[in-house]
Amino acid sequence: QESVSGESEEESNGVNLMQFSDEILLHILSYVPCTDLVLNVRKTCRKLATLCLDKSLTHTVLLQKDYKVNKDKVKQLMRDIGKEIYQLNMAGCYWLPSSTIDHITRCKNLVKLNLSGCHVTSLHLSKMLSTLQHLRSLAIDVNPGFDASHLSSECKATLSRVSELKQTLYTPSYGVVPCCTSLEKLLLYFEILDHSREGFMLSGQLMVGESNVPHYQNLRVFYARLAPGYVNQEVVRLYLAVLSDRTPENLHAFLISAPGSFAETGATKNLLDSMARNVRLDALQLPKAWINGSGLLQHLKFNNPFYFSFSRCTLSGGHLIQRIINGGKDLKSLTSLNLSGCVHCLAPESLFRKAEDNIDSSILENLVVSCCNLRHLNLSAAHHHSSESIGNHLCQLLSRLKHLLSLALPVCSITDVAASVEKPPTASNLVPQTFGRKVRIGVQTYPKNLADQANQKIESSVFWALMGSLRFLETLEIIGSSFSSAMPRNEPAIRNSLPPCVRAQSVGDSEVAAISQLTYLQSLTLAQLPNILTGSGLISIGLQCQHLRTLSLANLGMMGKMVYMSALMDMLKHCKCLRDLRLEQPYFCAGAQFFQALSHCSSLQRLCIVSRSGTLQSDAVMSFMANCLEVIMCHMFMGESLTVCKNLQQSIVRSFQADRPALNVVIFPLLHEDLTEVIRDVPMRHLDEITLFKSRVAEEPPNLWW
């Protein structure tokens, strides 16, 4: 009756959804999660019952961020449309039990399957793959206890036909790689810890029975990303040993992302020499020790490169132009470039240069002209200081890259040179960035009207002009060149932070307000902006950037006080699409007013707060969790006692876990000695995407995995 009355009301207003063409309705339905389509929407009427089962909607099923899906829904979904599914993505569904995987056997026609982050034993994997004879693309985790001897002959037959494999390793193992004899794309993520939970040192040697040799003869893409740790380096060398014996002729992408020092060995040198002789690459990333001081780059040959990463290398701008850009030749094919941490990449030479010296604008101009189709550019973690020459500021040159979708810059690179040279340091600039005795300073006055604020000075600044020219930018990171997050990876929390660059001292509210011009902005990261006095620019972003989904703020303004809390709360009231919020600020007070403002973010799913000496109100947190029904991740690392943290964590889990199967709660003292043990239990999806701070622009090649 309600349905009929609703239809009659629509007809009286001249609008009836069911009168649209099938094509339009299918397009609308494509935005609805598949579980809702099959289990709910198709039960409303006959027409939708037919459309919801259209091949265009059931061919590819994406469950990777459907946090409301549970084992019963997956079971029903597979029963209803299993035979129609050709691509299934369940990446990061950590809350589903391993028995859920058994239902995938109904998907007889599966071609692509992503189970990264799911609980899958070797026995469950064997049973499932034995029935998926058409499978060509697979992503899985290899956890402690994985035993390749449990894989049946039918399972190995399926693996022999797989051409794309993504494997995340939590234990030293080849996983299923030796069974995949037709591999063309291999992605390896090494997340092996150096120590067991009991404190024993782990070995990089593979387990007994793991001596089978991988088959790389058809390999086109090799990618390896290493978490910090010695064991990860030892295991990846075993994977590379086969490549050094015989380099695949069709290899066109070779990428190894390794933090810290990863020394070159005789085997890796032979591999690189073989690559220089036999292959032409389209994508390249190497550990810094393999590039620094070697003539490797001038010998490697490239075809139509689309991705380069020289993160943390000492590559000079002269070498960049001569060996990579070939003296300024056409590189229109390059769409993604990562120069994060390359402190000398915009200077002609690095031998006698200080990291804080001005850049050579001609090198950047050459780069911009040659790589005019760049969509992703990372220049963070370095001091890129522009000279006073008119028209040669870094922001002015980057404004020519009209196709940019994501950009990462150091704070000191966006400052207006003339303004910073002419103005003497203000009182706020002279305040030391420490946690000692508070110093009273004058507070700059700001116009009440945001429009007046925009006209104050920023419209004439180079950064304002840059933001105005990059109207389609979706991801922006402005990170202090000396910023280090207090959140650890595999080590204790960082207790001391380096002061910001001198050039960055003038960057504050007006520069933040300039970002509000980015109408299509979806992800924003701001870290170590020392001159934030009121945070008024954040309100402009909240009002204008209505597509903002991810917001990360860290160490803004004076370190001893949360000076932008009022503006942040005003901003959050306008962020209706915000899904991920990460805040890292010493002395942060997570109280009732903050959580009341945050409750306006009706789409919020994940919250992470990192605050040394920070405080929280348990009642306010509980009220927030009750009001925001979409929140499935709550991570807080504060200055509260272990008892307070544990009691709050248990209360949240006890109150909301039943209705939110994906709920993941970690509340723990930031400086506690057991923090690293707590971190290791966080699902990799959350740890990698929000909990740990890092620059994500051009971190990987675009479309590396579906």
UniProtKB/TrEMBL annotation:
Superkingdom in the source lineage: Eukaryota
PROSITE patterns with a match to the protein in the record: FBOX
InterPro entries associated with the record: F-box-like_dom_sf (IPR036047), F-box_dom (IPR001810), FBXL18_F-box (IPR047948), FBXL18_LRR (IPR045627), LRR_dom_sf (IPR032675)
GO biological process: SCF-dependent proteasomal ubiquitin-dependent protein catabolic process
CDD domains, sorted: F-box_FBXL18
Domain F-box: 14-61
Any GO CC annotation of this UniProt entry: SCF ubiquitin ligase complex
PANTHER family: F-BOX AND LEUCINE-RICH REPEAT PROTEIN 18 (PTHR16134:SF19), F-BOX/TPR REPEAT PROTEIN POF3 (PTHR16134)
Protein name (record): FXL18 protein
Organism lineage string: Eukaryota, Metazoa, Chordata, Craniata, Vertebrata
Gene: Fbxl18
